[in-house]
Amino acid sequence: MTLDLLPRRCPVCGNDTIIGHGRxxxxxxxxxxxxxxxxxxICRPCKKTFTILPDWLAPSGCYTLYxxxxxxxxxxxxxxxxxAAPHCKDPTRLPDPSSVRRWVQRRVLSxxxxxxxxxxxxxxxxxxxxLAWDLGAGCRILPLEASSP
Length: 149
Fold this sequence. Notes:
Blueprint: E1 18-27, E2 35-43, E3 48-52, H1 65-76, H2 81-84, H3 97-116, H4 122-126, H5 130-133, H6 135-141
Antiparallel strand pairs: 1-2, 2-3
């Protein structure tokens, strides 16, 4: 999904009532960028606003999932959390070692959960998306929908 496309269905009320509500600058630190413009939408009946993020940017996080992926790969290669902090375009915005350790813990937990659920796709488990890298955050932000048989 491109960020220019705005979903119309409100996850709160279920109606096609989301309309554009501008853009805002959002931090997205990694080796290539410092921030990006993201679309906002509003559901007037619910009075809820929504920020439409790309799949490689976690909600409430200022580092991209690519940045987290590089850190995890470096730790898997034997580096310490202090050494594994990935390079960012803005050198003053390097992640703290405690953040790197937290990313690794979330990644390991996500992989364990997906393996227990029977998902063995190597591409899926390596993809830098919120579902592959932080299942807990994905479960917090994605509504559960009933599926009919």
